[in-house]
Amino acid sequence: MWLECDFLDAEFVTASMGLFQAGQARFIVASKRHPESVDGRPLKRRILTMVFNKILNVFTGYPGSDTHGLKSIETTLAKQLCSQAITTDEVFQTELVLLAWRQGIKVHEIPIRIHEMRATPVSIRRRFPMVLDAIGQLRRSLRRFPGVAQEKT
Question: What is the pTM of this model?
């Protein structure tokens, strides 16, 4: 299952399918911040991604590098996580990542090549105030699930 397909990356799809078929992953994120990723978005977008993920780390403890963008999720796991989610809109996908992590599902990150073809529809000035509300929503969601040990894959 792929979410947020503003773009579709064939390498990501192929890598995801390989990990699923080998039984090595249940949840995969195409991380724009992976050391091997090529992020061709404007500098301020890259900085905002870094800041958002640092804020997530501070307020939730999530150790991953990115929660937004392309994802591949095993179907049964996706249904489970979607039924547990309490957020909507912008942070829904981030909530799925955090719920999986909090419940011990290993979130695999693989590199992605991204080049922005159009300007973002929501300005940074408008988006920034929403971040604090989003963090609050995510923290409320995570309180329902005490942390558990990560699954081994």
Answer: 0.84
